[in-house]
Specification:
Number of domains: 1
Pfam families: 7tm_6
Transmembrane segments: 51-71, 83-102, 137-162, 204-229, 272-292, 304-329
Number of helices: 10
Family: Belongs to the insect chemoreceptor superfamily. Heteromeric odorant receptor channel (TC 1.A.69) family.
Order of helices and strands: HHHHHHHHHEEH
Radius of gyration: 24 Å
Distance between the termini: 62 Å
Helix content: over 70%
Subcellular location: Cell membrane
Strand content: under 5%
Largest sheet: 2 strands, antiparallel
Shape: elongated
Main location: membrane
């Protein structure tokens, strides 16, 4: 679709589109990853430079020093666990940035489709309500994500700035003064002004990493909820096809819309499947480490302060919620696509014009094939997969516990 067609839209329905995407755009536009419908070559170059700066900052300022620290402490499970809770998300964040940057142009037509759908929403009050309800779900999720990010910044950045470390265990690579991350540098960070400059740089890179992580994750939610809203509208049209004056034209429109939505889902799956695989792996590792840490606390009788306990619980909740969200989105998408199949099947096609009945065949044939988001095109992202992953991680908890003993 020609993006310039929608560049000058004004009015209430353009405001609805802005309302639906503004929270997601804030994070992605900041780091240069927002898929703009129209932009000049100069704007594209500036966005690419911002993405490159963020990627280099996260990689050189967070990831490499964290890996350097991990190498120094290899062999000690407790110290490695403290390190990996930051290193693995940093690796995942770098992968997210590269893949989304690479696939951004493929997502632009989806954003154009979303803008067009909001413009067309003025044709039906009922359809507009469906879209608003779905968009509100995406807004609630990203609002919660921003709140979680603020809590993480408080524990990781604000408290160490006042000399309160959130480390559960002392680390041989610690410089002696609290730092936001567990890192190791080739220079002496205990001296002034190296310590202050390193602390400020880590703060900036952590903020950019969190914005990248949160923005890219929740952009998936924005697209999936919009597509689910369109599938709801499509289902309603199919179920009441006999009430339209020109049902044959309406059915053709429904088939075309269904094909367009399935193509959008294919693009989303192709964009996010490697990201989901990375999340799949690091969730399994961290969940096992966190479970092992809980068992160790009971075995050793360690007393945690309230701040450390809240911080630990927030970390577990954060990783658990992210993985559960992805699987829930996949489950919702599967359910919505199945409803289209049943809506087409339940239609009174046998009493309609044979030409109209033939037009239902593409919906029935394509609807019989399951539609999944996948992790690396291997594991379908459903709640059954999520439960199986938790069981597998729980098995590794006992392995870690036995190894340490």
């Amino acid at each position: 679709m020609d993006g310039s067609k929608y560049a000058g839209y004004r009015g209430a329905y353009d405001d609805y589109f802005e309302w639906a995407v503004q929270l997601n755009r804030f994070a992605l536009d900041l780091i240069g990853l927002w898929p703009k419908i129209t932009q000049s070559q100069r704007q594209k170059l500036l966005c690419d430079l911002r993405v490159l700066a963020v990627f280099l900052g996260v990689t050189l300022g967070v990831l490499i020093p964290s890996i350097h620290s991990l190498i120094k402490i290899q062999g000690d499970i407790m110290l490695m666990m403290d390190n990996l809770q930051f290193t693995l998300p940093a690796v995942s964040c770098s992968i997210r940035i590269v893949i989304f940057w690479w696939k951004k142009e493929a997502i632009v037509p989806i954003m154009s489709m979303i803008a067009e759908d909001w413009i067309r929403a003025h044709e039906s009050e009922q359809e507009r309500r469906i879209m608003i309800r779905r968009a509100r779900c995406a807004r609630v999720i990203i609002t919660c994500a921003y709140c979680i990010m603020a809590v993480a910044c408080f524990f990781i950045i604000f408290l160490p700035a006042f000399g309160v470390s959130m480390r559960l265990t002392p680390n041989i690579t610690d410089p002696g003064r609290p730092m936001p991350l567990q890192t190791h540098y080739v220079y002496d960070v205990t001296r002034w002004p190296q310590y202050q400059l390193t602390f400020i740089s880590q703060t900036a890179y952590i903020f950019l990493a969190m914005m990248s992580y949160t923005g890219i994750d929740n952009f998936l939610g924005l697209m999936i909820f919009h597509i689910c809203g369109q599938l709801d509208i499509l289902k309603d049209r199919l179920m009441h096809l006999d009430k339209y004056i020109n049902s044959r034209d309406m059915l053709r429109s429904c088939v075309a819309k269904h094909i367009r939505l399935l193509r959008a889902i294919d693009v989303i799956e192709d964009t996010y499947n490697i990201t989901l695989l990375a999340l799949f792996v690091y969730f399994a590792i961290l969940f096992a480490f966190y479970g092992f840490r809980i068992i160790s606390l009971f075995d050793e009788g360690n007393d945690l302060s309230l701040a450390h306990l809240v911080y630990f619980i927030s970390n577990v909740f954060n990783i658990f919620a992210h993985m559960c969200l992805y699987c829930a989105l996949g489950e919702i998408l599967v359910a919505q696509c199945n409803e289209i199949y049943y809506a087409a099947y339940s239609n009174e096609w046998y009493s309609a014009d044979p030409k109209v009945g033939r037009n239902l065949l593409p919906l029935l044939i394509r609807g019989a094939k399951p539609v999944y988001l996948t992790a690396g095109k291997v594991f379908p992202m459903t709640m059954a997969t999520f439960c199986g992953l938790i069981k597998t991680s729980a098995g590794y908890i006992s392995v870690l516990h036995t190894t340490r003993n």
